[in-house]
Amino acid sequence: MKKGNLLIVDDEPILLETLKYNLSDLAEKIFLAINGKMALEIIKRESIQCILCDINMPVMNGVELVKNIRALGLETPLIFYTGHGNHDLMLEAVKYGAFDFINKPALDHIEEVVERGLQVGRGDHQESKSDFMSEYRKLLASQ
Amino acid sequence: MSKHELNDEILFVGDDEDFFGQITSSPLVIKEDVAVLKTSYEKGSIFNRENIPRIVIVDVSNNSIDITRVTKEVLFYKKAPNFKSVFFALVCKNDEQKKELSFLFSTGFYLFHIKGGEIETFVRDVLYIGLKREIDFPRLACAKGINLPLQVGICSSLVKMEKDRISVEADLEDTEEELIIKFRQFPDNKGIVFPVKSSSAFTRYYPMLSTFYLDFPYPGPWEEIGPESILLDTVETWIENFASEFSEGDNFTVQVLSSDFEFLAGTFGGIEDRIKFIFTTSSESCPIEIMLEDKPDLIIANLSRPEEEGITPEVLDFLYSNDFVVSEYRPVIVIMNTPSKSGALQKLFNYERIVASHSPLDKDMFGKLLEKFKTKDSEGNKSSGLLKVNSPYRPVDILQEFYIVGLTEHEISFISQRELPFFAVLHFELPIEFHATIVPPIWTIDKKNDKNYYMALIHGLSEEKLMILRKFINQIIHSPLKEFTAEAVAEKLGEKALESAKAPSETIAVEANVVVKSAPTTKKEVRTLKISGKSKL
């Protein structure tokens, strides 16, 4: 089974390279972009199954990027990493579809979240009403 | 059809084919080109259809309908914006039944009709209020220039009674400083003056404008106790006597935030009693203090898509940033119609008891969410002085002094010191007991000095009462009243006529199926009524 392609978007080249190295086992191919504009060009050109993106970037931030991606009719899962003070951007991002948020700089559980994102992006797991109900039941049971 | 739009239809709920036939064949119904549908009642059947009718007429005259169930259904839907403007009228068999069911005036029914009465008058009133169309009314003999003050009751609901305070939902602005409440179960009671402790432009249970919280005006330690004084002992006795009138309270409270509540159509049949619902279209439609006090156990937010107006994540953010989620209070939050995943929303609001779905909220999902929640959380009983919907102690009149200026057997015109909403129901005890619903004036009236000049349609009169009212009007046209008191009215009518205008009471019972008929004919130009002023519908 193919792993799917991952796009990482961040304006810090060192972080881009580190993430590429750390996540290389999870994806078929990993593409890198230093801002949203460049990311959009890659998305139009390549088949991308999951996007890992800094929410706060110059040129085109994460929110602008997700808006543009949705305008293209793509439902690609976007995982945003966020820092302190990004609450308003997060609010805006969820309107267009955020798969998850990861706190910077710790980036805890990033592998696990990216793996789930790729799985959804590949279409291996579409959310159904019964999945949602089982999540709801679990939440009620945890009370 | 855009959201919140109703169909220009009448839904007749009942089994009386003859009466249904009289409505469908009414010249006015045909002239106004209004479809009339018919259904028998069973739980949840009123809105169990594709289109939401603008008018619902419930016929309870043959005692086959569970009136408490119907009332609960009406109250449930009246909370939701899509259904708020539906006009409900009730058909009774006689004056006795009408008197017994007059508690329904504070539950969303705006007009009564007694069978045997003039059907065309009923249909005209229903179409005028329900469709808000310009309808031609016949000119009736009018006693003008009465120019006398009269105390009149605004039909209201006593929602809660505790030994120190009561809460009342009423069609008055939330700026009142004191209210005179007349408890209908105490006929000698002329009304108790309650100072308003606090109020809110929001009601939890009944379709009215405001909620008032009122402290009992107990005399202070140095105040003289007179026959009019209200004493703690008296109120404690009332509460003891009320024991069977209190409901068991709500098991849990559900708040639904959505810009559209059309999905509720047909859901009532599957909903258990004792769930309190709060339907919210925006952060303004449900003040934060209500949420902090009611603490919904389950919050379902049906988000609007980014290009639409309505419920956005900002609305939720506004609610939760106001210390709504506090350590002791941990509601389950379900977010529907969101492209984001549960994990993202949990992190956004820093709260883990959130689940999200990309599907919009629909009837099926709503039912399932309640069903699962019920099985999890149905042990609680938060009862505290809430009166049952059908308790005879619940309806109260808030007394207001009106200046009566005109009276026909069908309309009453008056000046009020306070501004009142259209379609509020009034309870008159003079010249005979009757109810009237405030409407946009059916005639052009001279507004003198910008006073609150209103017109109300008198309805639900038996033939006998109508004769007495007619006689009274004829009397005062020729020899005007000097004062609007029981004695002065008695002088005009004679004691015998007054006695026969008073009616005793009797009890009602249960049951129902669906049949459809319609009467649309040719297209006509509709003249829509322009309503300027506050309106309940």
Automatic annotation (TrEMBL), chain A:
PROSITE patterns: RESPONSE_REGULATORY
Keyword Nucleotide-binding: no
Protein name: Response regulator
Residues recorded with modification 4-aspartylphosphate: 54
GO BP annotations listed: phosphorelay signal transduction system
PANTHER family: RESPONSE REGULATORY DOMAIN-CONTAINING PROTEIN, STRESS RESPONSE REGULATOR PROTEIN 1
Pfam families with a match to the protein in the record: Response_reg
SUPFAM superfamilies given in the database record: CheY-like
Residue ranges constituting the Response regulatory domain according to the UniProt record: 5-119
Keywords, ordered alphabetically: Phosphoprotein
Species for this entry: Peredibacter starrii
UniProtKB/TrEMBL annotation, chain B:
Highest taxon above the source species: Bacteria
Protein name: Uncharacterized protein
Species: Peredibacter starrii
